[in-house]
Amino acid sequence: NWLNATLSSRLGEGRLAALDFAYRLMNMPWTLIGTAIGIAIFPTMAALAAKKDVTAQRQALSGSLRAILTLALPAAAALILLGEPIIRVLFEGGEFTAESTQLVYYALRFYALALISQSMLEVVVRAFAAQQDTYTPLYVSIFTTLLNIGLAIWLTRPIAQGGIAHAGPALANGLAVLLEASIGLTILSIRWKGVDLRHILLDVGKALLGCVVMAGVV
Fold first, then answer.
1. Of 76, 23, 20, whose CA–CA distance to 210 is shortest?
2. Contacting residues for 118 by C-beta, under 8 A, at least 6 apart
């Protein structure tokens, strides 16, 4: 987008392209996990919202979030652990050199957080849509979009100046969307008097343990 183009173009040739390639790689598991589960669970959430069955809505949200996190956390770890050879196999050759691979991989590691937070947001936003509430996520999104822009400007500086270069927009997006999903969950928790947070955190712990084991094996 225009923000990535404006910020990354200041850092030198190839940075914007590297960010774009990294986004494409992150987008594939995000679509397969977050978008797919979000689309699948939405009709159920809408039906439960029409019945005003808060307990069932809470269970549906919790179950879909636990499924997403159980899949997204290992997927994010895989991007970090195996991203470099994947980029080399898919793209390296011709004008796409070994240096290009390193530029893409650098940004991809920061996009791992965005994979998790964007996948979570898919379900949180649909939980509001099922209740025919489109204004709440819109207002939250306006705030987090402004935060995203501010973080991106601050982070997208040369490493020598304390920034993280062209990975700045990737990390900014991941942090802003994570906050957006968290605010949405907090609002839903207040409305529903809970979102089964204990079971969500328990499954997150199991997924993190699995990631540690996977990382050791890799």
1. 76
2. 30, 34, 173, 174, 177
